[in-house]
Design a protein that fits this description.
This protein is α+β, with helices and mostly antiparallel strands and 228 residues long. It is built from eight helices and ten strands. The strands form two sheets. Strands 2, 3, 4, 5, 6, 7, 8 and 9 form an eight-stranded antiparallel sheet that branches. Strands 1-10 form a two-stranded antiparallel ribbon. The radius of gyration is 20 Å and the shape is globular. The protein starts with a helix and ends in a 12-residue tail after the last helix.
């Protein structure tokens, strides 16, 4: 006879099989979701959710915006950093780093050598790919072009770019198909655990931000007030 915990696991296995999530993210059982008026609709949609490996794509139709397309990519968490590095190769040699805590204002650095930025981010690879309080990415922007790459708090990739065929070839090399109607883990209820509770050697999100500020010479102190 199957015990209750096993039954719960069986009911959720279809969700866990969709995508390899970071260890910090867990999909709640139906019973763990707080009541809300549309709970039945959410549970029904969740059972049919397309949270799988792949990407969606939106072409830019506004000539005033300096990018050709925008894409969002789901990939198994153990491959997330490799994909981030591969997409980073599509940016120029000098980039800004954009990083911060989720739901707080991100910092955008001045232009820096891309390899230097990647080397600094690499030091916190585990935190950036698994800690859901952290977001980070690269940015290159002029009047004529925008290329931006980021790891979201829910640990999927957001990308704005210009070279569509190059992007598609990269997706193919990672065996990531275009998926019509692709969905993402933050569109549904989820339970998040701080990485430090699971990995004792992990750094706190605030510590990562502090060290990145030091590396990129970011001063977060408020400027002195100016009086006429």
């Amino acid at each position: 006879m199957m015990h209750e915990p096993c039954l719960k696991h069986a009911r959720l296995c279809y969700l866990y099989s969709m995508l390899e999530l970071p260890i910090t993210v867990r999909i709640p059982s139906d019973e763990e979701i707080d009541y809300r008026p549309d709970i039945d609709e959410i549970l029904f949609k969740r059972r049919k959710a397309k949270i799988v490996e792949g990407y969606d794509l939106t072409l830019n139709e506004n000539p005033r915006l300096p990018y050709r397309f925008q894409a969002t990519v789901n990939i198994g968490n153990s491959r997330l950093w490799d994909l981030f590095q591969a997409l980073a190769a599509t940016l120029p040699d000098k980039v800004s780093c954009v990083y911060g805590l989720y739901e707080e204002d991100n910092v955008t650095t001045p232009l820096l050598q891309k390899q230097f930025v990647l080397n600094e981010l690499e030091k916190y690879r585990d935190e950036l790919t698994q800690e859901c309080q952290l977001e980070a990415g690269l940015l290159f922007q002029t009047k004529d072009i925008l290329i931006e790459l980021g790891i979201s708090e829910s640990k999927y990739i957001r990308y704005w770019g210009a070279e569509l065929e190059r992007f598609k070839l990269l997706m193919k090399s990672f065996r990531l198909p275009f998926v019509e109607g692709l969905e993402f883990i933050d569109e549904y209820p989820k339970i998040v655990t701080p990485l430090r509770e699971l990995v004792r050697t992990a750094k706190a999100p605030e510590t990562v931000i502090y060290y990145l500020d030091q590396a990129f010479h970011i001063d977060r102190r408020a400027p002195d007030p100016f009086f006429d």
